[in-house]
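From the shared-data thread, chain only:
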Amino acid sequence: MKAGRVSQTVYRRSVLKQIQNNIEGIDFLRPSQEETCYIADESEERITIATDVSLAGNEKDLGVFAIAQAVDQLASRGARAYGISVRIMLPTFAYESRLKAMMVEISEICKEKGLRVFFADAQSVNGIQTSIVHVTAHGEAKKEQLLASRSAKAGEEIVLVKWIGMEGTLRIIREEGAALAERFAPGFLNKLEDMRDEIFSDRAMEIAGRNGVSAMHPIGEGGILAALWDMAEGAGIGLSVEMKKMTVRQETIEVCEVFHLNPYQLTSTGAVLMVTPKGEELKERLKREGIPAEIIGHTTEGNERIIWGGGEKRFLDRPAPDELARIYEMKENANA
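Structure, as tokens:
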């Protein structure tokens, strides 16, 4: 199989079908490829939500990207993260210094974000070529504030928060810093490094949750095109969006051009799709808080998922593999 998440057909046939008898009675946050969170505990007024994130790579701050993705996923369901568990798997040729550096990054971001670390483990594993970080995060939400991937409604506006491809750009810099340093001035790369905090968007989603959103969908693996598909598929609705309104930083475009990557299919933790009947009001509310936001289109009845670009209409395809996987493939081929 190709690197990345399996196709929806494979997921439904070989994953979901096998657990049908085990998920009866689960109505909200029901297991699906579009739903990233699940209910871990429940009381009369509050619900504990959990989510799992696994990332592979060579970055010493790989755990930070995994934690950001988990925190954002919980926030999109109306929950505030309060703690994590982390497991690190290293290739057998890795040194202890790599493990220590990764744990320092995890410890620092947890302290900064007020997250407790419930459990941490590390092991060296045969048969892998890069580090793998798995994070389980827990958060708490009030029942009346809970949202799901299928909560989006037809006839509402789609707001894009922050920039697509930011996470992927940062991770490419870590993997291919030497090659990029030959093409770009140090100030160019340093400017991007200063943007790492933008991969956390829990504050933006907390604001949106108080301003009438019907659904929020963090943009992760597969980029904005995958996120648009997942959001619409989960809710059983259509959409119409304009490519030119999707905010992307010039630095991301230039880094993608170097490696011939599509920024619209690049992992984008920090960027969020929000569906709301009050798009302009939400956009201005976020901008007053210093958070970039743009209306990129609207949801529709039916199943048509349309993208407008350059005056042309095309239909949104099913999610493709994330472009970041091509960076790892190029490195593997170069080392073969």
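Residues 96-113 form the longest helix (18 residues).
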